[in-house]
Amino acid sequence: MSARREAGAVPPWVMPEAISSKGSNENINPNRRQRSSGDNFPPWGETAPRQLPSPQKKEDVQASVTTPRRCNLAAGDDTSLSEQDSKKEYLLISGGQVVNGDHMQTADVLIADGKIESVGVGIRVKKGTPTIDATELMIFPGGVDIATYIENDRFGFDPKTFLNTTKEALLGGTTTIVDTVICPKGHLPLNTIREIQSKTKGTKLWCNVVYRVGLLEISETILSQMETLVKQKLVNSFLFFVSGSASPAEQSEALSPVELRKAMEKCHQLGVLAVVRTSSKPSSGEVAVEHSEDQEKAEIKATEEILAIAEMTNCPVIISSPHSLNTVEMAAQGRRQFPPIHAYISCAPSVLLPTPLNGMQKPSKFLDYLTTGGITAVSSDQAGTNPYTGSPRLGAIGQRLVAVWESGVPPGYLDASLFVNLTSANAARYSGLYPSKGRVSPGADADLILWPICSLARVGSGRPTMVLLNGKVMAREGKLADSANELIPPITVNNSPVADTDPNPEGDYLAAEPFPSAVYGLVAATDRMKRRHLPNRDSETFSTPSPNAPKADTNLSIPQAAPAKAESRKSPGSEVSQNTPTARNQSGSDSSHMSVRMVHGHRDLYASGFSLSGAQVDDDKPQRSGIRTSQPPGGASRNPLW
């Protein structure tokens, strides 16, 4: 008996198969070799020497046999020397702290032709491969700005300076922007976006751009063109304006509740996101940070309307750049209810900055919702090509990442992973770009940021050390990388530093895919829930009606009473009347005793139609005070009481 069998590694009842001395079978799959193929397997308990191809030298054979293969900490295998293609352009970033939205780890990143090929520990590459030593640096995915308004004539768009605006974004660490083209009233969205494309034709980009279309009115023609835009993969989100104010200027560009419902139903059908703003002036630098009481009430009213219609249509919605904390709280309550409302919040960096009050800096209350998940993305709100028409109190698109980092990370509101989610990963998920964008993993685009680790606790040091786009070094310390810069970390070849090559604009317009799985996976689950169960609005849970209950209308479509629905929705903290009739009560059936709480598909064996209340079958017979039996049960008895 072998040593392995004596040690208990192999059960005693398992007998090794006899090794056949016949020739190998030619029909056997070489990737899955069978024991009966005639291979000379070693005796039990011994290790066979590695058989290497003949062209390798003796030194290479010895090195490959004796060097152990280290285990990865991330997805992707180590890339061995023989697997590297000499035709590809490689770049190795070694010793960095890879940060994704769900974890952090120390690993190397191997880039090949603008794509991340491998992430792991101890990646071996050929001699002469350019290498960046990322010790004491974190490796972030490139930033994704989910709301900009650059290519719009109403905000002073200049195609000649569009290149500089994208360069500002790149220098600040943003490698992809979602730019909104607002369609004026009386124009068609397809014509508007074609006009913008003709203006920017031939213009180079320093960062990637994804289109979004903003609509100020809804008609059947516009709804039809929305479908055309999505099918041509030009956009996968639409912007709408809703106003709770009575101001004629605000109402002129805001959609009515009926129009908003039609638009969101179309978005749900096409698999795109509805981005809604409560103000039609996204970039005005003159907007005060502290809104008045009337402005806050108007925003709350508009938010109630948005959430009510989102609940009717089950359409995912992003409420962009709110100024009231009540808006954030109402959206969070909508996500927590059952069934949930798929509403998300994207804020501007200006609301994260401290507010001056009586000569002192008052911390922003919005930072609390960054930690708890009430706010899921941060956008720059850059409008036009003027760098000073961004969000209030924060000038340009290039300051977004620095503002979020300095506001949230050193004070302890955020860690590095939450920072990645707010500035890159969630925006990529909502835009259908994840995991190509917003993640450092094999197969993703090599849009990366190198960030100093010391800035986790040191205020004022958080800034991009290096920015890569498509695997090429584009920026260092807030400036374009060129051969004259001698900044660290340098690119080394065989441990010798080499000068940076002068970068060229590498950005492009990206296709927008509908039905982003991170959003519409939850929407599809809610649709299945509503189709399978009939909601009982009198209770907190879904219930299955009793077999004896009259059949109710299972059509979940709500009549065109969107304004009434919005008015019936109460703000947080308000009391809701318990006597409000529900849909079932209006249909004539009382759902309070007709429904039975049980697992769907099971029968309630204790359910019965018998009831002691109401009319009975013996009501016509006279009632007697009592009946005395002549004999007790079981036979005669001598008990005198009988």
From TrEMBL:
Residues 161-473 form the Amidohydrolase-related domain. InterPro entries: Amidohydro-rel, Metal-dep_hydrolase_composite, Metal_Hydrolase, Metallo-dep_Hydrolases_sf. Its cofactor is Zn(2+). One of its GO terms (biological process) is pyrimidine nucleobase catabolic process. Residues 21-31, 574-594 have a biased composition (Polar residues). GO terms for molecular function: dihydropyrimidinase activity. Residues 1-82, 531-594, 610-642 are annotated as: Disordered. Its EC number is 3.5.2.2. It is an enzyme of class 3 (hydrolase). GO terms for cellular component: cytosol. Signal peptide: none annotated. It catalyses: 5,6-dihydrouracil + H2O = 3-(carbamoylamino)propanoate + H(+). It holds the Pfam family Amidohydro_1. Belongs to the metallo-dependent hydrolases superfamily. Hydantoinase/dihydropyrimidinase family. PANTHER family: COLLAPSIN RESPONSE MEDIATOR PROTEIN, HYDRANTOINASE/DIHYDROPYRIMIDINASE FAMILY MEMBER. This is dihydropyrimidinase. It comes from Calicophoron daubneyi (Rumen fluke).
